[in-house]
Amino acid sequence: MSLLSASSSSGSLSSRSSSPSFAGSASTTPSTPIHSTPTVFLITHPASAPFLKALPVCTGSGDRVLILTGAGLAKPLLAQASEVLADASLLDSAKWESVKAVDDNENVVFWRTSSDISSFASPPHDSLLYLDKLSINTKEVSEASALNLFSNSNLRALISLPSSSSLTLHILERPPFSFPLLSQTPSTVLNPNANAYTIPSSSCFRDLWSAWDLVTLGMIPQSMLHQKPIDLRHKPLFYIGHLPTFNALLLTKLLRVPMVEPRNFGVIFERGIDPHVDDPDHCHSHSEVPEKDEDWPHLGQVLAFRDRVRALVMKTLGELEDGTRVLTRRIARTLVMMHEHEGFHIETLLYMLIQRAGTGTLPPPGFAAPAWAHLSTQWDTIPAPTTSSVTLGPCTLEMGHDDQEPQDLLSEFEGDVAGHEFGWDNESPKRSVVVRKFRVEWRPISNGEFLAFWKKMDGKVDMPASWVEEEREMKVRTLYGPVSMEYAQHWPCLTAYDDLLAYARSKGGRLPTESELRLFLDTYQVGHEEGSNTGFRNWHPLPATAGTDSNGGKGSNGGVWEWTSTLLDTHEDFQGTSIFPGYSSDFFDTKHHVVIGASYATIPRIADRRTVRNFYQHNYPYPWVGARVAFDV
């Protein structure tokens, strides 16, 4: 049993797991009731985001939305959809009912499967759905545009089925949470410039908390609370307490108010661990945690504390919005740190939990399991790069941004918030770097490529921790459990820097420097709104797509961070944070390498800020980091 079903303190999440309210204007609300049995909606017109958002699609119920875009006959794609969904009734005209609605002031008809038509607020259309004759003639939509439409509609694509014509059928679900597009950041009292990288709004925090609660309360069985998924980190219960403790410590210090009770949580949960892989006894300053399971706080106590801290966060934002508290850059930075710290930790916890997926960790509730066989068939047909690599440089590259934390306390900067881009200490200041001419492969090293290399090395290179051998078959770990290497062979290989460096050297290459990789990503990597696999669009990597003639060579790296050969270290005019002392400087130890990019579980705000620099030890095998091969020219 998950903690979500066991805990009475998860009301915010459970309330989101039912169908969202779609009480909108009459012009965008389809007239259909919510049914308890799974329903399939078929949309054949160019639907707007408000229309799709208003569809009564229940989260986690098996409800699906089928959207046809482009032009061509629909029945062949509906036949494929019936296979994917294992629902033969999709090909039975008698199972479909038409429904009149209004979308963007236009009268439209959509279709749904139902056994009861008597409760429709608007009577069903007179005509039947003649599948053999159903022809679509709408504008073709790019993959990125479709994904953005789905994001704006609070829908998630499970698979998109193309046809020999321009017609595509998208199969979607309503997820328990999603992250709004950064371009849709609203103008508010606290953020009049609609700046995606300034102070996070209350809705930003609520979206993040929904994701965090789903992971911590929906994917961790009670039996795993005190079990370490990996040796080099704490047990899951620590992280459930760590995030509210971190927020409470930062916020109460900022506001000069007493620590949220119980105060001893600040001792237990303040800071996690990142010990040296080679010598786990060597570790930075961290919290002293109880040795015995029975000495830890109970989950209910931790969740009650979490709720009190969240209430303080919301109260603070409310005071800033109504003007009873003056917004300063220091306050904004603290709230940014709290928000992004949670974003980073969702991913940290997930790369730990994936080590027990299938043997303890539960799949993400409310998110449908991928149709691996159908998806892998599509992945096998992704075109290879037109050339294996691309040459870049020489050039001068701008790195970082100007966001020095000490300026927060200077009078000339204190009130500059709305137009400011916040980051972490290692992102500042802006600086110019000369990049020499080099050559780099279009795509990260794939599982299939590394598997062939690993077999040749005959034990001289470690097996990636992202793989697992079951009954003499090599599989790749996912949050839904291990899957066949056949399905995941084209995904980027996630393993330690040392092992990917060994692969690169076997090809006469190396791993790129930070500035080299930054130049490549700036030039050829697409962002979240251009179709990258970030922000929980999927709960697994995808094959990389860069290097073809389409889109000027641009594409996705598959949804992974990427290793660089650059060690995390100080740089000119670096100034460490005083709000989170040691965030970067504790790891200037010649062991941590800079990684950049973003994984499928990186929130968009972090994924799309090009100055973000993450870091891991060179021989740490668990994080979702891949690499591509670079060559001197």
UniProtKB/TrEMBL annotation:
Pfam families: DinB_2, FGE-sulfatase. Residues 1-32, 535-555 are annotated as: Disordered. Residues 220-348 form the DinB-like domain. Keywords: Iron, Oxidoreductase. Residues 420-630 form the Sulfatase-modifying factor enzyme-like domain. Pathway: Amino-acid biosynthesis; ergothioneine biosynthesis. This is Uncharacterized protein. It comes from Hermanssonia centrifuga. The lineage of its organism: Eukaryota, Fungi, Dikarya, Basidiomycota, Agaricomycotina.
